[in-house]
Amino acid sequence: MNATASLSVETVDTPAGSGLEPVADAAPAPSVDMTAVKNRVKRAQGQLGGVLRMLEEARDVSDVVVQLKAVSRALDRAGFAIISADLRRQVAEGETLQPEDLDRLERWFLSLA
Q1: What is the chain's Cα-based Rg?
Q2: Residue 34, Cα to own-chain centre: how many angstroms?
Q3: Does the first or last residue of the chain, that is N or C, have fewer Cβ atoms within 10 Å of its Cβ?
Q4: What is the pLDDT of residue 32?
Q5: How would you class 76 by CB atoms within 10 Å of its CB: exposed for 0-12, middle for 13-18, buried for 19 or more?
Q6: Residue 43: Cβ-neighbour burial (10 angstroms; 0-12, 13-18, 19+)
Q7: Is the model's pTM score more than 0.85?
Q8: Spatial distance between the Cα atoms of 67 and 71, rounded to a whole number of angstroms
Q9: How many CB atoms lie within 10 A of CB 33?
Q10: Integer Cα distance of 112 and 41 in angstroms
């Protein structure tokens, strides 16, 4: 299972041994509509810009932390949606999920929890 290839999302560096490495020999899969996820990430990007402005304006720490929490939650939800979309794609295509696939999915979910 390769969420990066199947979802047409750019890869990012992950720590070695984290279990989040892309699978090198996976065949590209059909693209999944990621419009909602992209919109969520764009909103989080705007919220993060607001956090930066708050810091520049020396706003109250509690207000800044509340906004950071909102950004973090939005990004986590985007991550869950990406993983869910790939799992749905695999099921729809009749792919058989092996135990190592399920382990990888669990690691991805837990990395966002």
Answers
A1: 17
A2: 11
A3: C
A4: 66
A5: middle
A6: middle
A7: no
A8: 6
A9: 9
A10: 15
